[in-house]
Amino acid sequence: MNPEHSREPGPERQRGRTSEAPSARSPERPAAREPERPDEPGTPIGRRLLLGTLGLGALGVLAAPPLQRGLESLFAGDPTGLTGLLPNGGGFRYYSVTSSVPHKGAADYRLTIDGLVDRPRSYTLADLKALPQTRLVHDVQCVTGWRVPGTPFEGVRLSQLLDAAGVRPTARAIRFTCFDGAYTESLTLSQARRSDVLVAHRMQDKDLGHDHGGPVRLYVAPMYFYKSAKWLSGITVTDHVRPGYWEDRGYDVDAWVGRSNGRDDAPTS
User: Fold this and answer.
1) How far is residue 235's CA from residue 232's CA, in Å, rounded to a whole number?
2) What does the pLDDT look like over 184-215, one tens digit per residue?
3) Of 114, 198, 215, 217, most Cβ neighbours within 10 A?
Protein backbone atom coordinates (compact mmCIF):
# COMPACT_ATOMS: atom_id res chain seq x y z
CA MET A 1 0.00 0.00 0.00
CA ASN A 2 1.82 2.91 -1.10
CA PRO A 3 0.62 6.47 -1.01
CA GLU A 4 3.20 8.84 -2.38
CA HIS A 5 3.19 12.55 -2.13
CA SER A 6 4.91 15.48 -3.73
CA ARG A 7 4.90 18.42 -1.38
CA GLU A 8 2.56 20.41 -3.51
CA PRO A 9 -0.09 21.86 -1.17
CA GLY A 10 -3.34 19.97 -1.20
CA PRO A 11 -6.52 21.73 -2.20
CA GLU A 12 -8.92 22.93 0.41
CA ARG A 13 -10.36 19.85 2.06
CA GLN A 14 -13.74 18.65 0.94
CA ARG A 15 -15.53 16.61 3.56
CA GLY A 16 -17.07 13.28 2.72
CA ARG A 17 -18.14 12.38 6.23
CA THR A 18 -21.26 11.39 8.03
CA SER A 19 -22.01 13.22 11.26
CA GLU A 20 -20.18 10.52 13.20
CA ALA A 21 -16.43 10.01 13.37
CA PRO A 22 -15.00 7.05 11.42
CA SER A 23 -15.94 3.83 13.11
CA ALA A 24 -14.28 0.44 13.23
CA ARG A 25 -15.34 -0.06 9.62
CA SER A 26 -11.77 0.67 8.63
CA PRO A 27 -10.66 0.38 5.01
CA GLU A 28 -7.62 -1.58 6.11
CA ARG A 29 -8.88 -4.75 7.78
CA PRO A 30 -8.44 -8.10 6.01
CA ALA A 31 -11.27 -10.02 4.44
CA ALA A 32 -11.91 -13.68 3.91
CA ARG A 33 -10.07 -15.03 0.88
CA GLU A 34 -12.14 -15.48 -2.25
CA PRO A 35 -12.65 -18.80 -4.01
CA GLU A 36 -9.93 -19.81 -6.43
CA ARG A 37 -11.35 -18.20 -9.56
CA PRO A 38 -14.87 -16.89 -9.10
CA ASP A 39 -16.70 -16.05 -12.30
CA GLU A 40 -18.84 -13.16 -11.09
CA PRO A 41 -18.16 -10.05 -9.00
CA GLY A 42 -18.95 -10.51 -5.34
CA THR A 43 -21.62 -8.86 -3.26
CA PRO A 44 -20.60 -6.11 -0.82
CA ILE A 45 -20.25 -7.56 2.66
CA GLY A 46 -20.24 -4.38 4.71
CA ARG A 47 -18.66 -3.95 8.09
CA ARG A 48 -16.87 -7.25 8.54
CA LEU A 49 -14.75 -7.50 5.42
CA LEU A 50 -12.75 -4.50 4.28
CA LEU A 51 -10.90 -3.49 1.09
CA GLY A 52 -7.19 -3.07 0.80
CA THR A 53 -3.97 -4.61 2.10
CA LEU A 54 -2.38 -4.72 5.52
CA GLY A 55 1.23 -3.91 6.29
CA LEU A 56 3.63 -5.26 8.89
CA GLY A 57 3.71 -3.71 12.31
CA ALA A 58 1.19 -2.95 14.99
CA LEU A 59 -2.07 -2.22 13.21
CA GLY A 60 -3.67 0.89 14.60
CA VAL A 61 -0.87 1.79 17.02
CA LEU A 62 -0.87 5.30 15.60
CA ALA A 63 -4.62 5.43 15.07
CA ALA A 64 -7.03 7.29 17.28
CA PRO A 65 -7.83 5.18 20.38
CA PRO A 66 -11.53 4.60 19.58
CA LEU A 67 -10.66 3.37 16.08
CA GLN A 68 -7.83 1.22 17.43
CA ARG A 69 -10.09 -0.38 20.05
CA GLY A 70 -12.73 -1.02 17.41
CA LEU A 71 -10.23 -2.71 15.13
CA GLU A 72 -8.91 -4.86 17.97
CA SER A 73 -12.46 -5.90 18.80
CA LEU A 74 -13.19 -6.85 15.21
CA PHE A 75 -9.95 -8.80 14.90
CA ALA A 76 -10.73 -10.71 18.08
CA GLY A 77 -14.01 -11.91 16.60
CA ASP A 78 -12.74 -12.49 13.08
CA PRO A 79 -13.73 -16.03 12.02
CA THR A 80 -11.38 -15.98 9.03
CA GLY A 81 -8.23 -16.33 11.09
CA LEU A 82 -6.28 -14.25 8.59
CA THR A 83 -2.97 -13.51 10.26
CA GLY A 84 -0.40 -14.52 7.63
CA LEU A 85 1.22 -12.31 5.05
CA LEU A 86 0.69 -12.81 1.35
CA PRO A 87 3.42 -15.02 -0.12
CA ASN A 88 6.17 -12.71 -1.36
CA GLY A 89 3.85 -9.84 -0.49
CA GLY A 90 6.51 -7.50 0.86
CA GLY A 91 4.59 -6.82 4.05
CA PHE A 92 1.09 -6.59 2.59
CA ARG A 93 -2.01 -8.65 3.30
CA TYR A 94 -5.06 -9.32 1.20
CA TYR A 95 -8.35 -7.51 1.75
CA SER A 96 -11.55 -6.82 -0.14
CA VAL A 97 -14.99 -5.36 0.53
CA THR A 98 -16.63 -8.25 -1.31
CA SER A 99 -16.79 -11.96 -0.62
CA SER A 100 -15.13 -12.73 -3.98
CA VAL A 101 -13.33 -10.91 -6.78
CA PRO A 102 -13.04 -12.29 -10.32
CA HIS A 103 -9.58 -12.87 -11.74
CA LYS A 104 -8.67 -11.05 -14.93
CA GLY A 105 -5.57 -11.51 -17.04
CA ALA A 106 -4.00 -9.86 -20.06
CA ALA A 107 -6.47 -11.53 -22.43
CA ASP A 108 -9.68 -10.29 -20.82
CA TYR A 109 -8.73 -7.14 -18.91
CA ARG A 110 -10.18 -3.84 -20.15
CA LEU A 111 -10.01 -0.32 -18.74
CA THR A 112 -12.65 2.07 -20.07
CA ILE A 113 -12.46 5.86 -20.06
CA ASP A 114 -15.73 7.68 -20.63
CA GLY A 115 -17.98 10.45 -19.36
CA LEU A 116 -17.18 14.08 -20.19
CA VAL A 117 -14.54 13.29 -22.80
CA ASP A 118 -14.33 13.76 -26.56
CA ARG A 119 -12.65 10.43 -27.26
CA PRO A 120 -13.91 7.59 -25.04
CA ARG A 121 -11.89 4.43 -25.38
CA SER A 122 -11.03 1.06 -23.91
CA TYR A 123 -7.47 -0.03 -23.08
CA THR A 124 -6.11 -3.54 -22.88
CA LEU A 125 -3.27 -4.35 -20.52
CA ALA A 126 -0.92 -4.42 -23.51
CA ASP A 127 -2.14 -0.96 -24.55
CA LEU A 128 -1.30 0.45 -21.12
CA LYS A 129 2.14 -1.15 -21.08
CA ALA A 130 2.91 0.32 -24.51
CA LEU A 131 2.45 3.90 -23.25
CA PRO A 132 5.22 5.97 -21.60
CA GLN A 133 5.81 4.57 -18.11
CA THR A 134 6.47 6.27 -14.77
CA ARG A 135 8.03 4.61 -11.71
CA LEU A 136 7.42 6.10 -8.26
CA VAL A 137 8.90 4.98 -4.94
CA HIS A 138 7.27 6.28 -1.76
CA ASP A 139 6.01 5.06 1.59
CA VAL A 140 2.51 3.63 1.81
CA GLN A 141 0.40 4.96 4.67
CA CYS A 142 -2.80 3.36 5.93
CA VAL A 143 -5.41 5.49 7.62
CA THR A 144 -5.35 3.08 10.59
CA GLY A 145 -1.71 3.85 11.30
CA TRP A 146 0.63 1.29 9.74
CA ARG A 147 3.16 2.29 7.12
CA VAL A 148 5.20 0.36 4.54
CA PRO A 149 8.31 2.27 3.45
CA GLY A 150 9.72 2.67 -0.02
CA THR A 151 7.24 0.75 -2.18
CA PRO A 152 7.72 1.06 -5.96
CA PHE A 153 4.71 1.43 -8.25
CA GLU A 154 4.94 1.67 -12.02
CA GLY A 155 2.42 2.51 -14.70
CA VAL A 156 0.90 5.30 -16.76
CA ARG A 157 0.23 8.73 -15.35
CA LEU A 158 -3.51 9.24 -15.13
CA SER A 159 -3.04 12.67 -16.68
CA GLN A 160 -1.76 11.01 -19.88
CA LEU A 161 -4.95 8.99 -20.24
CA LEU A 162 -7.10 12.03 -19.55
CA ASP A 163 -5.26 14.09 -22.14
CA ALA A 164 -5.63 11.32 -24.71
CA ALA A 165 -9.37 11.19 -24.03
CA GLY A 166 -9.87 14.94 -24.43
CA VAL A 167 -11.46 16.14 -21.18
CA ARG A 168 -14.30 18.59 -21.79
CA PRO A 169 -14.39 22.08 -20.21
CA THR A 170 -17.31 21.18 -17.93
CA ALA A 171 -15.33 18.38 -16.24
CA ARG A 172 -14.50 18.76 -12.56
CA ALA A 173 -13.84 15.29 -11.18
CA ILE A 174 -13.06 11.64 -11.88
CA ARG A 175 -14.99 8.59 -10.67
CA PHE A 176 -13.25 5.21 -10.53
CA THR A 177 -15.03 1.86 -10.63
CA CYS A 178 -13.63 -1.61 -10.04
CA PHE A 179 -14.35 -5.09 -11.32
CA ASP A 180 -15.06 -6.42 -7.84
CA GLY A 181 -18.48 -4.90 -8.49
CA ALA A 182 -18.57 -2.78 -5.34
CA TYR A 183 -15.61 -0.47 -4.77
CA THR A 184 -15.55 3.09 -6.06
CA GLU A 185 -13.29 6.10 -5.57
CA SER A 186 -13.04 9.70 -6.73
CA LEU A 187 -10.61 12.54 -7.26
CA THR A 188 -11.01 16.13 -8.33
CA LEU A 189 -9.69 16.82 -11.81
CA SER A 190 -6.72 18.77 -10.42
CA GLN A 191 -5.85 15.89 -8.08
CA ALA A 192 -6.10 13.38 -10.91
CA ARG A 193 -3.69 15.41 -13.03
CA ARG A 194 -0.89 15.30 -10.45
CA SER A 195 2.35 13.70 -11.57
CA ASP A 196 2.23 11.26 -8.63
CA VAL A 197 -1.09 9.64 -9.55
CA LEU A 198 -0.76 6.49 -11.64
CA VAL A 199 -2.79 3.82 -13.34
CA ALA A 200 -0.39 1.14 -12.11
CA HIS A 201 0.29 -2.35 -13.41
CA ARG A 202 3.51 -3.04 -11.46
CA MET A 203 4.24 -2.98 -7.72
CA GLN A 204 7.48 -3.83 -5.92
CA ASP A 205 9.09 -4.28 -9.37
CA LYS A 206 6.74 -7.12 -10.31
CA ASP A 207 3.59 -7.32 -12.37
CA LEU A 208 0.67 -6.41 -10.15
CA GLY A 209 -0.87 -9.63 -8.87
CA HIS A 210 -4.54 -10.24 -8.20
CA ASP A 211 -4.26 -9.96 -4.42
CA HIS A 212 -2.67 -6.53 -4.76
CA GLY A 213 -5.45 -5.32 -7.08
CA GLY A 214 -4.09 -6.48 -10.42
CA PRO A 215 -3.77 -6.51 -13.22
CA VAL A 216 -4.32 -2.74 -12.90
CA ARG A 217 -5.05 -0.49 -9.93
CA LEU A 218 -5.12 3.20 -9.14
CA TYR A 219 -2.17 4.60 -7.19
CA VAL A 220 -2.63 7.99 -5.49
CA ALA A 221 0.74 8.62 -3.91
CA PRO A 222 -0.02 11.57 -1.59
CA MET A 223 -3.21 10.17 -0.07
CA TYR A 224 -4.15 7.42 2.37
CA PHE A 225 -4.18 4.07 0.66
CA TYR A 226 -7.94 3.62 0.50
CA LYS A 227 -7.86 6.14 -2.36
CA SER A 228 -5.70 3.75 -4.45
CA ALA A 229 -8.54 1.60 -5.73
CA LYS A 230 -7.74 -2.02 -6.57
CA TRP A 231 -9.02 -4.00 -9.59
CA LEU A 232 -9.56 -0.81 -11.59
CA SER A 233 -11.94 -1.16 -14.54
CA GLY A 234 -13.49 2.25 -15.22
CA ILE A 235 -12.48 5.92 -15.28
CA THR A 236 -15.44 8.26 -15.74
CA VAL A 237 -14.98 12.02 -16.07
CA THR A 238 -17.80 13.87 -14.28
CA ASP A 239 -18.94 17.39 -13.43
CA HIS A 240 -18.76 16.90 -9.64
CA VAL A 241 -17.09 14.72 -7.03
CA ARG A 242 -19.06 11.64 -6.02
CA PRO A 243 -17.80 10.21 -2.72
CA GLY A 244 -16.38 6.70 -2.97
CA TYR A 245 -16.95 3.52 -0.99
CA TRP A 246 -15.16 4.57 2.20
CA GLU A 247 -16.18 8.21 1.99
CA ASP A 248 -19.79 7.04 2.10
CA ARG A 249 -18.84 5.34 5.38
CA GLY A 250 -17.32 8.39 7.04
CA TYR A 251 -13.79 8.82 5.71
CA ASP A 252 -12.49 12.01 4.11
CA VAL A 253 -12.86 12.59 0.39
CA ASP A 254 -9.62 14.59 0.22
CA ALA A 255 -7.48 12.03 2.02
CA TRP A 256 -4.08 13.77 2.09
CA VAL A 257 -1.65 11.88 4.31
CA GLY A 258 -1.25 13.77 7.59
CA ARG A 259 -3.88 16.38 6.72
CA SER A 260 -7.15 14.44 6.84
CA ASN A 261 -9.12 11.87 8.83
CA GLY A 262 -7.93 13.48 12.08
CA ARG A 263 -4.38 12.14 11.59
CA ASP A 264 -0.96 13.80 11.60
CA ASP A 265 1.22 11.22 9.82
CA ALA A 266 4.33 12.41 8.00
CA PRO A 267 3.83 12.96 4.27
CA THR A 268 4.59 9.93 2.16
CA SER A 269 7.34 11.47 0.04
Assistant:
1) 8
2) 999 999 999 999 999 999 999 999 999 999 99
3) 198
Residue 67 has pLDDT above 70, yes or no: no
The answer to whether the Cα torsion of 268, 130, 90, 30 is positive or negative is positive
pTM of the model: 0.71
Residues 28-47: pLDDT tens digits?
Answer: 443 333 333 333 444 443 33
Q: Count the neighbouring beta carbons within 10 Å of the beta carbon of residue 172.
A: 14
164: phi then psi, degrees, rounded to nearest 5? -65, -30
**Which of 21, 38, 89, 8 lies closest to 252 in space, CA to CA?**
21
> Which residues does residue 161 pair with via DSSP β-bridges, in sequence order?
none
pLDDT digits (tens, 9 = 90+) for 236-269: 999 999 999 999 999 999 999 999 999 999 999 7
CATH code at position 139: 3.90.420.10
Query: What is the domain extent for residue 138?
Result: 46-249
Count: domains in the chain? 1
Q: How many CB atoms lie within 10 A of CB 6?
A: 14
Contact 94, 122 (CB under 8 A): no
Task: Measure CA of the first residue to CA of the last residue in the chain; give whole Å.
Answer: 14
Q: Residues 56-84, buried b or exposed e (16+ Cβ, 10 A)?
A: eeebbebbbeebbebbeebeeebeeebee
